[in-house]
Amino acid sequence: MQQLTQKLGSGDMIIQDVPYPQLGKGMVIVKNHYSIISAGTEGSTVVAARKSLLGKAKERPQQVKQVIDTLKKQGPIQTYRAVMKKLDAYSPLGYSSAGEVIEVGEGVTEFEVGDKVACAGAGYANHAEIITVPINLCVKLNSNTNLKDAAYNTLGAISMQGVRQADLRLGESCVIIGLGLLGQLAALILKASGVTVIGIDVSEAAVKQAIDNNVVDLGLTRNAAGVEEQIQNITNGYGADAVIIAAATSSLDPINFAGAIARKKGKVVVLGAVPTGFERDPFWYRKELELKMACSYGPGRYDLNYEEKGIDYPLPYVRWTEKRNMEAFQNLIATKRIDIDYLTTHEFEFEKAKDAFDLVVSKEEPFTGIALKYDLEKTISKSKIPTSENNKLGKINISFIGAGSYAQGNLLPNIPETNEVGRVGVLTNTGTTSKRVAEKFKFQFCATQESDVLDDKTNTVFVATRHDSHGPYVLKSLEANKNVFVEKPLCLLESELESIINLQSKTNKAVMVGFNRRFSPLTTKLKKAVGNNPMTMIYRINSGAIPGDNWIQDLEIGGGRVLGEVCHFIDYLTYLNGSLPVKISASALPDANQLNDTLNILVQFENGSSGVIGYYANGSKSLTKEYVEVFSAGMSATLNDFKELKIYGKGKPKKDKILNQNKGQKEMVSAFVNGLLTNGKAPIPFEDIVAVTKASFGVLESVKRGGQQVEI
C-alpha cells in the first residue's frame, strides 16, 4: 500500500510503498476514499520540515533544551542517534479521512466489512490508501453519505468542541476570529443552532467566502473601519456573548481584541494556536471574562483508555465525547443542516499529494479545504516490501518485531556486521517505521504480517514492542523454534512466565532479556573488584516522575514501573553477587494513584548477600539518575551513573572515569550474538532471567501485603 510521508530533517515528501497495517484488537482497517489536508496544522509541519536545522531549532526551543539535557546526561553519541532518528524518520501526515471498512479486529461489534466510516486521529487517519483506526476514533455513516464531505470529520469535531465550550443558547451571539477551515466550520455549526454569527479575518477573501455562502450574519476584515462599533450594533450594544478564536498567529491581537468585543461576563474560547498573554486591564479585568480552552475533538482526547482501548465514557455523565462530537457533525451533514461543499476549493488525486502541499506552502492562490482522492479500483497487496539488495544469510539471521526509539538507538546500531549475521525482516505497528528501519539498517524487507518474520529464513527474533506484547511474542518466537531477545520485561503475567519456562525447556532455544547494565565496562571492573564474597549492596535510582496516564504506568499495557524498570536493578544486584534472589520485601510511598513508583526494596540472595533498591520518582532532576554502592570483605565501591567508578580498599581509592555514559547496550548485543554463534546460548543464564522476573512480581505482591516478605 502507499502512504504520504515526509522527513523532518530534509523536508522531503514522497508517496511510498509501506507495509499493510496490522489489525489490532478493537480496531478496524479502512480503505480511504478521501482525506483532508489541514492547511493550518499540517501546513506548519511541512513548512518547519523544509527549514534549515537552525530554523527548526528556532521554532522548537523546548526540543532544543531536551537535546542539550540528553547531551549532558548521555553524551554525544546517544544524543546524535536520538536526534538523527527524529530527523531521518518517515513522518506520516494527515488526521482526517473517510472510506470503507475492509477488516474488523477482535472484539469489534459495531462495524462490519463494507461499512462507510469517517476516521480521525494523527497516526491513524493518515493520507494513505489503507489505514487502521481504533473504534472510538471511527464513526459509522449512512450508505448514501458523501464521503468527501464526511472526510472533514476531525476538523468538524474540533470545531464542534469549540462551539460546545462557548455554551451558547438560541438567539445569542458569537464572534469567530479567524475564518479558515475551523472558523468556517464553527460558523456553520453555530448558524445551524440559531446563534447570530459574526466572522472576522485579516483576509478579505476568507470574509467574502463566508458572506457569499451565508455562513455569517456579519463578516468583517480585522482592519475595517468601525469593527467594534458594528459588533456592538448587531449585538444590541451588549457585545458578543462568546468569542471563538480560530486563528493561528503569534500576535496578541486576537486575545486582546476578543476582550474588547465580548460582553461583560462573556466567554472567550481558544480553538486555534494563539498566545493568551492578554492585557489584564481594561477589558478582561473589568468585564470578568471567562477564558476557556477547547481540547481538540472533545473528552476522550489523549486518554489511552478511551482512544486505544475503546473504553467509552458513560453518556449520562459525559454527554459529548470526541466520538459523539464526530457523530453529531456527521449528522449535521447527512441531514443537510449544514452544507460544506463550498469548503473544498481544491481536489487532488492522491498521487499528486505533493502538489497539494506545495500549494499550501506557497499560497500562490486562495484555498480553504483541500481533498485528496484515492484510486478505488487499485488492488492493495499485503506482501512484504523489499528494502535492501542484501540477501545474504549467515549462521545467525535476525528479524525485529518492534523498532521504536530504544531499538533504533541501542539495539539495531550494535548488531555485528559480519558474514555470520544476516538481517532478514522488520515488523512494527506503523509501516513508515518498518520501512525506514529496514532501509537504514539494511534488512531484506519490511513486513506486513508476523508470519513474514517468523519464517524459515529467521532463526533469531528481537522483540522491542510495548510491554504487554513481550510475553506473547516470546511465546510465538519459541513456538516457531527461534532464539529470542526481548527488551525488558520478559512478560507482564505470571501465567505467561510459566508458559515461557515450559516452552523454553522443550525447545532449548536461547531466551535473553535486555538487562544491559550488567554488560557495562565499568560493571565488569566493579564485579572483578568485589569478588565472590557475600556482600551488601545499595542501588539508588532517581527515576523521575512519569504521568499516570503514560502507557508505561498503565498496568495492562506497560505493567507499571516495577515490572517495566525495577527488574533492571534486581538483575544488576543478582549479577554482582553471583547468586539468585530468594526473598524480597518492598514498601511504597503512599500515592493516591497507586503507581508504586517510589519505593524501597530489600532483596536477599542465596549466598547470604543482600541488596537495597531505592527507586524514587519524587526527586530532583539535577541529581544523577543511578548510583550504586557495594560493601564486601573489607572493600567498598561506588558507581555513579555508569560514568565514574571508585574502588576503596587499602591505600588510596582507585578511580575510573569515562567521558560518555555507557550502560552496556553495545556490549550486550554483541555478547548475545556472539553467544549464539559460539555455543547457541545467551550470555545471561535463563535461570537468572526467570528468578529476576519472579522477584519483580514479588515486589508488587509485597507492596500489596504492606511490606510483608515474599519468597521467590
Automatic annotation (TrEMBL):
Database matches in InterPro entries: ADH-like_C (IPR013149), ADH-like_N (IPR013154), Gfo/Idh/MocA-like_OxRdtase_N (IPR000683), GroES-like_sf (IPR011032), NAD(P)-bd_dom_sf (IPR036291)
Gfo/Idh/MocA-like oxidoreductase N-terminal domain segment(s): 396-515
Family annotation (CDD domains): 2-desacetyl-2-hydroxyethyl_bacteriochlorophyllide_like (cd08255)
Annotated Pfam families: ADH_N, ADH_zinc_N, GFO_IDH_MocA
Residue ranges constituting the Alcohol dehydrogenase-like N-terminal domain according to the UniProt record: 91-141
Domain Alcohol dehydrogenase-like C-terminal: 182-298
Cofactors: Zn(2+)
Family: Belongs to the zinc-containing alcohol dehydrogenase family.
PANTHER family for this protein: D-GULOSIDE 3-DEHYDROGENASE, NAD-DEPENDENT ALCOHOL DEHYDROGENASE
Protein's name according to its UniProt entry: Bi-domain-containing oxidoreductase
Biological source species: Psychroserpens ponticola
Lineage, broadest ranks: Bacteria, Pseudomonadati, Bacteroidota, Flavobacteriia, Flavobacteriales
